[in-house]
Design brief:
184 residues, mainly alpha, 2 domains
Length: 184
């Protein structure tokens, strides 16, 4: 912006700007007023360029707060539907089978171990937006490296893995008794 102030401090430019505002020159072309003020075509082009550059910078400055708000919103964590129970908060526990493959207990519903029955889990915000926010407020040096681990909520958990193993073991046991051949 300092360049604009210096540019506008030139006497020829000031004369040109005053002439543009006077009703006396209302019917004159801008080039004629510029020539009368002692400005060349290059001076007029530079004035036009500076005006548009200033306008562009002001557009960026005025849009900055909105972009900052959106960047902060992108960086924030959100709650999403639990991928394990599809948001219901509970999951089916398969019935236990005897050696003949017959159900010896009913199929039960138990609280989802991933979301603890809430039906939703936290999804971390966008890592790039987080870096931008941290750099902007000075928490993160632009040369420093930060590793934001986003896999914490995507891992189903030990209980879930054990449930899956148990379920596969029961399915294998059922397949062995029904086919009487080992399943690889």
């Amino acid at each position: 912006m300092g360049e604009v102030a210096q540019f506008l401090d030139q006497p020829k430019i000031q004369k040109f700007m005053r002439a543009l505002a006077r009703p006396k020159y209302q019917k004159w072309s801008i080039t004629r007023i510029a020539e009368r003020s002692g400005l060349s075509a290059m001076d007029l082009l530079s004035l036009w360029r500076q005006a548009n550059l200033s306008k562009t910078v002001m557009t960026f400055i005025e849009g900055g707060p909105k972009v900052a708000e959106e960047t902060v919103a992108d960086a924030m964590s959100t709650l999403i539907c639990c991928p394990r129970c599809d948001g219901f908060g509970d999951i089916k526990q398969p019935a236990e089978l005897n050696d003949k493959g017959e159900a010896v207990s009913e199929t039960l519903r138990k609280t989802c171990p991933t979301c603890n029955g809430t039906g939703s889990v936290r999804k971390a915000g966008d890592p790039e937006s987080r870096k931008v926010v941290f750099k902007a407020i000075g928490i993160l040096d632009s040369k420093a490296a930060v590793n934001i681990n986003n896999t914490v909520n995507n891992f189903p958990g030990v209980a879930s893995v054990l449930d899956e193993i148990e379920s596969m073991r029961k399915e294998r046991k059922t397949a062995l008794t029904l086919d009487a051949k080992p399943v690889p």
